[in-house]
Known about the structure:
It is a single chain. The protein is an alpha/beta fold. The chain is about 45% helix and about 15% strand.
Amino acid sequence: MGREIKSVAVLGAGxxxxxxxxxxxxxxxxxxxxxxxxEAAEQALDRVVNGRPPAIDTPGKEANIEVGSLEEDLHKIAxxxxxxxxxxxxxxxxxxxxxxxxxARADGSIVSTNTSGIKLSDITANAPxxxxxxxxxxxxxxxxxxxxxxxxxxxxxxxxxxxxSLAGFLGDVLGKGVVRAKDTVNFIGNRIGCFWxxxxxxxxGTALSRGLTQEAVDAQLSKPMGxxxxxxxxxxxxxxxxxMDLVGKNLADNLPEGDIGLRYTxxxxxxxxxxxxxxxxxxxxxxxxxxxxxDDGSRKKEVFDLITGDWRDENPAEIDDAHAGPAAxxxxxxxxxxxxxxxxxxxxxxxxxxxxxxxxxxxxxNAMKWGFAWNKGPFELIDDxxxxxxxxxxxxxxxxxxxxxxxxxxxxxxSFYRSGGTEYLGLDGNYHPTGSV
Length: 437
Ligand SMILES: NC(=O)c1ccc[n+]([C@@H]2O[C@H](COP(=O)([O-])OP(=O)(O)OC[C@H]3O[C@@H](n4cnc5c(N)ncnc54)[C@H](O)[C@@H]3O)[C@@H](O)[C@H]2O)c1
């Protein structure tokens, strides 16, 4: 039987905690939001209401949120149906907090962690059975009220009614697109999205040395591929090189042996130099790009040229018809090769991971659409350019087929989806109704 969620405790009131608390309050849940001190929680509540953007849209809904400190008010979680941990990404901190949560919460409550990459099995390594049965990962994306994706990751001992109750609440009440993922490093969206970025820096570096500009890289790796206009360098400017460095280190420690992502966990030299200098992205006033305000009040965008190591004026790149869609990856020129290396390489990476990170291709496609704002997921993109053509190019290059492409080839199927997307190709080589996922 499902467990009803009407009251929520959010522990940790930073970027994500305020987002989760705000959305829950907006949807009329009673929310307890705790942080390291009452003052910190009060400041967080102010950000829920007055932040840019605010986490709550309807004036007055913040009255649903009670604030307090983790030190003095943790006992109040005894009245909460769902307890969501959103403190800093540090295993020891999370484990210590879960020990205290376990002592304070009521039987029947549901617990989750908003970790973005730590495996649940590590967090619950020494946890009692009750917690192991009642806990999932609920991985929201930032900003919580805007990004549709919430990855839901059960542990090996999580009871099915906990997973189903959370899935129902996240989808029906909070309005999220719930994707069920497996308990592996970085789950689905960040496993593939961070591969795209880290491998992308290396692949784009090669393209730059062959004469492409950074603007041309971002122009090719954005709208033509159906991904946001920030492109590669612009997206990393938004996230920050320091965060990407932490992501790379976490992947270096936790990717399974043999995973090709291990080749790209360290930055190329120019990006490492930027990190060392503190040239991290938008938060430090410039990374790969910067915006200058001139004396006459106008603005000028500059590019940090990775080849010369100097700032220069931005020179926007044009995209011709041959490169205007995902099929650019079949063009025999530097831009086409860039698209094939980075986009094609990422699609292959995703195709190899089905089974390991998700049960099916639909979860992977939804994670990339809802979490990274891709217009099409990896398998929809392969269908778009033609799975047969994609396989032929890999064969021409003498590259073995990644798992899902091998399954497609062996089963004689021509696409990952058929019947207008209502059926998808499963790991068993048969089509299944997409609605059943
Ligand atoms: N920011 C993102 O884009 C994003 C996206 C998805 C998931 N996450 C994950 O969500 C969690 C929170 O991330 P965030 O971006 O909101 O971080 P944040 O730094 O904005 O907030 C962390 C909060 O934890 C509190 N805190 C710090 N030390 C603590 C301690 N020792 N004990 C208890 N609380 C402590 C801080 O006061 C702060 O309010 C992390 O696990 C992170 O990986 C972040």
